[in-house]
Specification:
alpha+beta; globular; five-stranded mixed sheet
Length: 155
């Protein structure tokens, strides 16, 4: 049935946003065969970052986890822009999360759980994936978190 993923988003009280425009010379997502690779997605909401700074100093881990959910939602919008329909997702293959971290912060996996949990809530078993959660010194626009995903499409 077409629209099941977006219906699930609506059940969760979420709306698929417009694709966040690139900040530089890249595409938000590209398709190669049956796979879609997104560029890193910042937690942009209506063209703005809701928070900036380092996790563990300027932004709490809980706030950053919510921002990672926004990144995942933005990534799904990017996937739809090249796949045409989110119901074509066979599975999420890999998630990579970058967390702008205070030097003492070591909770990157918990932050990136925000993205992983959103994908599971929306896609069920198709949202189960391999993952990396990496602490970095700084991200574009001083964003606290950035997430990229790779998905396999149904043939």
């Amino acid at each position: 049935m077409s629209g099941t993923v977006e219906a699930r988003l609506a059940e969760l009280g979420l709306t698929l946003p417009e694709v966040v425009p690139p900040l530089a010379a890249y595409q938000p997502a590209v398709r190669s065969g049956d796979h879609v690779f997104t560029s890193g997605q910042l937690p942009m909401v209506d063209g703005k970052l809701p928070a900036t700074g380092k996790v563990g100093a300027d932004v709490t881990a809980e706030q950053a986890k919510e921002l990672a959910r926004v990144c995942a939602l933005n990534a799904l919008a990017a996937v739809k822009s090249v796949a045409g329909d989110l119901d074509r997702i066979a599975r999420v293959v890999k998630v990579v999360g970058f967390v702008a971290s205070d030097p003492a912060f070591t909770g990157q996996p918990g932050v990136v759980n925000g993205a992983s949990e959103l994908l599971g809530e929306v896609l069920g078993d198709k949202g189960v994936h391999a993952r990396s959660a990496v602490g970095v010194a700084v991200l574009p626009l001083d964003a606290p978190v950035e997430v990229e995903i790779q998905v396999e499409l149904l043939p």
